[in-house]
Specification:
370 residues; alpha/beta; Rossmann fold; 2 domains; six-stranded parallel β-sheet; 12 strands; 37% helix; 16% strand; globular; Glyco_trans_1; transferase; Glycosyltransferase
Length: 370
């Protein structure tokens, strides 16, 4: 039986890891492939994902405390990958932009066994220096990314946005546009046991609060500080769902949710009415889609990948990224307009039917076997 190995830089909570876990779970239930998730031992953070019992989780190296040890673990990871490619019928699926710069170490004869699953605008993802910290490191990363874009691998993308950004930078116009969408576990994220709001009821808001500057939590907080008291009086709660450290923000007015699992996130969504996303850009942006499944109204920045399912004035209100006035006006309109909220909720029900982990897993298997 052929084996699929998903490679990730760590195994903490995060959109890219969630995609790999859910695709692995679906393929596991098909019974067509052996499955493994492998990562370097570069973080002590944990996740709350539910993983099928027959999926092997492999950690490479000793827990690293500094950059040099992390790089050594990455070396051990790729040594492991090359040995597996030599000895068995296996496909390697890798997404992380930094780990992917090491793909040149894999002999050319095995490159057809590599699927580069691009889930972001990889070339620009570290431009804010939040992760790399250093412009020299950023320049080296960009150079290696361009070099690796020339490798003859199999490619998959999570949205038309990420495909477009890849083509712009790589100039590889002969790469097939294979889109494999993230999806939602409908057993967890659904609108069951959700009370219908009356027109005069107060509304509640949820958002995923991240420390990363790309996510622009600052924009939401600035908008909130300028929101008219009349509008605030219509809001019962604002839930900030986060596993990040948020000490640099003043969040005393809000309820912080530190979720232990997806059920806790879904339950927060089910008692919320409006989901807000403020990112400058997203490869796909899974939380708004999960919120749609839970019967929420979406108010989101027009962040690129969100266009796969969020359509302005049809099932969502979109605003220009970074435009705090548009964010504020959009929230006021949604709070004041019950008919518009009901329209977006009904149209959202039609949209979410198109997204399924099993469907995406079958598309991935077709790419692996091509």
């Amino acid at each position: 039986m052929k084996k699929i190995i998903f490679v990730t830089p760590q195994f903490k909570n995060g959109g890219g890891n969630r995609v790999f876990v859910e695709l692995s779970n679906s393929i596991s239930r098909f019974g067509t492939h052996k499955l493994e998730i492998v990562y370097p031992n570069n973080s002590a953070e944990i996740n709350h994902y539910k993983i099928e019992a027959d999926i092997e989780i492999k950690v490479i190296g000793k827990l690293a405390a500094n950059m040099y040890k992390k790089l050594f673990n990455c070396y051990l990871l790729f040594k492991y990958i090359i040995n597996v490619l030599k000895s068995s019928d296996v496909t390697i699926i890798i997404s992380d932009p930094i780990l992917s710069v090491f793909l040149w170490t894999i002999p050319r004869k095995y490159q057809n066994n590599i699927v580069r699953f691009i889930q972001a605008d990889d070339y620009r993802i570290y431009d804010d220096l939040f992760v790399l910290k250093n412009r020299l490191f950023l320049s080296i990363f960009k150079l290696l990314t361009l070099l690796n874009y020339k490798l003859k691998l199999k490619y998959a993308f999570n949205s038309s946005f990420t495909y477009k950004k890849f083509v712009e930078v790589s100039k590889q116009r002969d790469v097939r546009k294979v889109i494999i969408h993230p999806a939602v576990d409908k057993k967890i994220f659904n609108n069951l046991q959700r009370e219908k709001k009356e027109i005069d009821d107060k509304l509640s808001i949820s958002l995923i609060a991240r420390d990363h500057p790309l996510k622009k939590l600052d924009d939401f907080l600035e908008m909130w500080s300028n929101l008219p008291d009349k509008t605030k009086s219509r809001i019962s709660d604002v839930f900030l769902i986060s596993t990040d450290k948020l000490e640099r923000f003043d969040l005393n007015e809000f309820t912080i949710i530190r979720p232990q699992d997806d059920y806790e996130i879904a339950n927060t969504f089910k008692k919320s009415d409006i989901f807000i996303s403020t990112s400058l850009w997203e490869g796909f942006s899974l939380p708004p889609l999960e919120a749609l499944h839970c019967g929420m109204v979406i108010l989101s920045s027009d962040s690129g990948g969100v266009r796969e399912y969020a359509f302005n004035t049809f099932n969502a209100s979109l605003f220009e990224p970074g435009n705090i006035k548009e964010l504020k006006d959009g929230l006021i309109e949604l709070i004041d307009n019950n008919d518009k909220r009901e329209k977006y909720i009904e149209n959202g029900k039609k949209t979410v039917k198109e997204f399924s982990w099993d469907k995406s897993a079958k598309e991935l298997i077709a790419l692996v076997q091509s």
